[in-house]
Write a structure and sequence with these properties.
single chain; alpha/beta; six-stranded mixed sheet; four-stranded antiparallel sheet; 10 strands; 26% strand; binds adenosine-5'-diphosphate; binds magnesium ion
């Protein structure tokens, strides 16, 4: 299970309305990509879904339940950030284990999950290393592994490939696609890269200045963009 419903979500920072009424449904197992220019509200929307930010109004429902008062750790969500956000003083293994330890998961179960996730992400050789001893691509795989071991209903990725060089971006993108096929989990993925959006998404949500311009499959957006903004975004590589 991992469906999501967003109902008329608005978010203001002071006088500035950053999300201006977002409505969206994501079904269980779907891979949804949020695209749009820098500053349009993609990260804010992810943070509202994760509970890291309160919306000003509107509702977020996960599997049909309103999560407005559910703390982030209880939402069944794991988030992967552009900057990896690993603990530098902990080994790869302990970075992956920490959240589970804090949640009171039994040690044997933690070991089992780390084994499965590190096999999936080819992290076995690095389990005893610290983040500083890893490449950018390896660090991002650790951050993804840390999300996987939590067995979330919903994965949120915020521009996870932005800090990687071109070759690694392709590899890591393929790994994320493979992970989605294996885990059959719901994934929401933010990017400003059209290639990532077109290749990963079941459904693309095009955001602009705090509003949704269009929602559709990659082919729908490509063949029938709702307006010039969407056409420009899908048409012109940047
Ligand atoms: P995106 O991820 O699409 O680049 P963001 O969601 O990060 O956009 O930001 C949307 C807008 O909200 C930007 O104008 C940004 O400056 C503003 N913003 C984001 N977070 C805050 C905050 N904590 N306080 C004030 N303004 C913010
Ligand atoms: Mg952002």
């Amino acid at each position: 299970m991992g469906s999501l419903k967003i109902e008329n979500v608005k978010k203001a920072f002071g006088q500035v309305e950053v999300l201006k009424g977002i409505d969206l449904e994501v079904t269980d197992g779907e891979f949804v990509v949020f695209v749009g220019p820098s500053g349009c509200g993609k990260s804010t929307l992810l943070r509202v879904i994760a509970g890291l930010e309160d919306s000003t109004s509107g509702r977020v429902l996960i599997d049909g339940a309103d999560v407005s008062i559910t703390p982030p750790a209880k939402r069944g969500i794991a988030m992967v950030f552009q900057t990896y956000a690993l603990y530098p003083h902990l080994t790869v293994k302990n970075n992956m284990a920490l959240g589970l330890k804090q949640a009171g998961t039994p040690t044997a179960e933690i070991e089992r999950r780390i084994k499965v996730a590190s096999a999936m992400l080819s992290l076995e050789p690095y389990l005893q290393r610290r983040p500083a001893e890893l490449s950018g691509g390896q660090r991002q795989r650790v951050a993804i592994g840390r999300a996987v071991v939590r067995e979330p209903k919903l994965f949120l990725f915020d521009e996870p490939l932005s800090n990687l060089d071109a070759a690694l971006r392709v590899n890591t993108r393929l790994e994320i696609a493979q992970l989605h096929r294996r885990l059959k989990a719901t994934m929401i993925y933010v990017t400003h890269d059209q290639v990532e959006a077109m290749t990963l998404a079941d459904k693309i949500v095009v955001l602009n200045a705090g509003r949704i311009e269009q929602i559709g499959s990659p082919m729908e957006l490509y063949n029938s963009p709702a307006n010039e903004f969407v056409a420009g975004f899908i048409g012109s590589p940047k």
